[in-house]
Amino acid sequence: MKKVQFTETVLRDANQSLMATRLPYADYEPILDAMDKAGYYSVECWGGATFDSCLRYLGEDPWERLRNIRKNMPNTRLQMLLRGQNLLGYKHYHDDVVEKFVELSIKNGIDVIRIFDALNDFRNIKTALEATKKYATPKTVASGCISYTQSPVHTVEKYVEMCKELKTMGFDTICLKDMAGTMSPYEAESLIKGIKDGVGDMPLILHTHCTTGMAYMTILKAIESGVDVIDTATSCFSNGTSQPATESLFYALQQYGYPMDLKEDVINKVNDFFKPVKQKYIDNGTLSPKSMGTDAQALVYKVPGGMLSNMIANLKDMGAMDKFDEALAEIPSVRKDLGYPPLVTPLSQMVGNQAVVNVLMGERYKQISNEIKNYFKGEYGIAPGPVSQELQDKILGAGGQPTDCRIEDAKRTGEEFQKAKEALGDLARSEEDLMSYICFPDQAMKFLKDRKAKEENVATYTIEEA
Fold first, then answer.
1. What is the distance between the alpha carbons of residues 409 and 407, in angstroms, rounded to a whole number?
2. Is 222 helix (H, G, I), strand (E, B) or coil?
3. Nearest-CA neighbor of 212 among 288, 331, 297?
4. How many angstroms from the chain centroid is the CA of residue 36?
């Protein structure tokens, strides 16, 4: 039997899916040394929503967080999720910005860059791949990612062709990202066997969620069918909208005789550490019981864990949790109108937010977000299937058609960096500060001002004390 390897997600997707990425670095720093000895294929610790959440909610420098994780986990591959031309934000960035972001990510400690595009429009991941190869270290892995979903326009044949394209592009591994946990065991078997026939021995990774209750069955069938690496979460942060449990799958696969590198005593120690951390966030309401259960209705709604936890948080903020079920039921209709995009960031937020607005306004598309308008203009890439002609006419005018709005005329201009330097002045001390501002200008500006104020207060206090 071939070896099965594990990517541990508790530092990123597990807590993003269960509690909207509100886990501060200080809460897990003491366990990093132990995690470094666990034998994981990689630890997903950065990217996704962590960057935004650090600046917006946690008062942390995301780059400093990454450097600290690297310092405390020198022997483990550190992994991030990158949204291709969107980086970690919600719009396309110039090629020079994408390249610099990848360069800085590798410089600050990232080894595995999992790159995806929400629409599986691979033009939008080409620059990030090229930059990964350009700045690669001997440990760097470029992982091409497919956003998995089911719809009339998504077939096994289509996915196999996508994987062949990723291999041709030069990726080192391929990841199937089942963000809503809707892949069934049957679908996993036919899909993975088809992909393995198409790309040979290229390492294949499966990322799924327990949202619908099928993840354990799907992962076991996927391993039988040839998957090499699985994404799991330490058990107290597993299940619900998160990934399946690391320890449980280790136990089951061990009995089947699969070779694995995990050290059982260490992964149990990791879980023991996170138990009180989880309880703290249950007690203060950050971790909602809705995120921890199984919802087979997600097989209809195709809603990923992070999208669900954010939707719950937003409805709570608006005092509109009574509209939750109605908003959930509206999501498939909005998705169909947009041509069946996979529900993954930023499309998941766009579709989810529009569904909420439709319900709260009492009229579909009475108010349309700028992001949805830009989607119909073509700014995010090519829709997987036909969009609603009625909605397109409403946004673009009768007979209006999308154009290829991808940034092709502003390659490596330095324009964004110059604007950032002018806006930040002496607040920016590094390229990383500039990059934070380019990605999230309002949040980065506030964070950098607060950082300066705190340092000045500390300096004043020290002088007066002396």
1. 6
2. helix
3. 297
4. 22
